[in-house]
Structures are given as C-alpha cells and as structure tokens.
Design goal:
The chain has six helices and seven strands; from the N terminus they run ααβαβαββαβαββ. It is of the alpha/beta class. It has two domains: about 30 residues; about 170 residues, Vaccinia Virus protein VP39 (Rossmann fold, 3-Layer(aba) Sandwich). A seven-stranded mixed β-sheet has the order 3-2-1-4-5-7-6, with helices on both faces. Helix 5 links the parallel strand 4 and strand 5. It is globular, with a radius of gyration of 19 Å.
Length: about 220
C-alpha cells in the first residue's frame, strides 16, 4: 500500500533530481567543454531536426571537394558527407578528444570508408595551412569551444575564398548558440551570412568566406 508519506517522498526526490539536472546543465553551459567520451551514447541518437540529409542540402558537398568537419565525435554526419564527395574528395574529421578520434577511426575501418581522415586537433588552433578546404561544418559543437570567436577565425583562415561554412545548433543542447549570436560572431570574423533553415531552436546556418579581390 502506497502511503501519503511515500508519495511525498517520491515527489520530493523527483524535484531534487530535476533541480540537480538544471544545476548540472547551467554549470556545463558556463564552462564550455565537449561531450565526454563516456557519454558518447547521447551523440549517436537520431537528430530529426538537424538530420544528415538536411545538412547536405545546406552544405552542398560536391564530388572532389576537400571538407573539414570540426567536432566529428563518433562520426554521426561524417560518412554521409564523405559519400557525397567521392570519388576524389576527402573529409578531415577533427576532434579534440583522442578517444573520439580512435572510436571514429575504428568505425570507418569497419565500414570500409577510405576517404575520411580522423584527426586529433583543437578548433582554436587547427593543424592546417591557410586556404586548405572548400567547405567546413560543425554541428552541436561551437558552444562547446571555450573561445568561439577564435574557432570561427580559424575556420575562416583554413577555408578558401568563397568557401562555405555550415553551423548546426539545436535545443536542448546546454551550449546552444542562437542564430543571432552566431551571425554576429561569424560576421565579426569575416564571414558573409547566406541562409539558414529550421526553427529558432533547431537550425542549420550557412556562411561563406568572401571571394578574393586580388585576382588569385
């Protein structure tokens, strides 16, 4: 028999758990960091509002292109983009966590994907020379980087003139970046905003590096 005391105790436990969850989310938001490898199950869940197909619609990857993925994790989007740039294109999948890079490398080996290069690297200091890529993308990643402006500056640096950048964001990610904030910060780093699709709480936005004016 369930007593009133039991019901009150369960209700209190639920409230305390909810408050603990809110506190954890606030602490995580105030201290940007990537999803730990031990919690990778969450980044493998379906993402219907920021799907693989919608990413490709906005990014428009083309055969033969060299594309950078920042914060690849376990490769939720990687294989789809890699397939779009075959046969001669390449995706460089960068992640700051070595276990994520190792996990992705193992998955790629199992699938036989040979046009993806898993790379350990920090978005604030990308290990590539200027003008290295035709396009780049990062999904649910920008807000996890402690210095978003520096990461956007690095992406602008490694993209070729005219290169495309797609950023995906979705709630309830505690590091969610609004479209308005993204546009302001990206334009400060030299990007030109082009378009966005989705809702205020779940979207892809595309920007580009202005074409070179020096005739090169």
């Amino acid at each position: 028999m369930v007593t009133r005391r039991t019901i009150r105790s369960l209700a209190l436990a639920g409230v305390l758990a909810a408050l603990a969850g809110v506190a954890y989310a606030l602490r995580w938001r105030q201290n940007p960091s990537p999803c730990p490898y031990s919690q990778r199950v969450w980044i493998d869940l379906p993402r219907p509002l920021i799907s693989r197909s919608r990413l490709c619609e906005v990014l428009e990857p083309r055969p033969g292109e060299r594309i950078l993925e920042l914060g690849a994790g376990t490769g939720y989007y990687t294989g789809t983009v890699a397939a779009a740039v075959r046969p001669a294109g390449m995706v460089h999948a960068v992640d700051v966590q070595r276990p994520m890079v190792a996990d992705l490398r193992a998955r790629l080996r199992e699938r036989g994907d040979d046009n993806v290069a898993p790379v350990h690297g920090d978005g604030r200091a990308l290990p590539y020379p200027d003008d290295s890529f035709d396009a780049a993308y990062l999904v649910l990643v920008l807000g996890e980087i402690p210095d978003e402006e520096r990461a956007l500056a690095e992406l602008e640096r490694v993209l070729k003139p005219g290169g495309r950048l797609v950023v995906g964001e979705s709630l309830p990610d505690p590091h969610f970046v609004t479209r308005e904030t993204l546009r302001e910060r990206a334009e400060q780093q030299g990007f030109r905003f082009e378009t966005d699709v989705g809702t205020r709480g779940s979207y892809f936005a595309r920007m580009s590096v202005p074409p070179s004016t020096n005739g090169n």
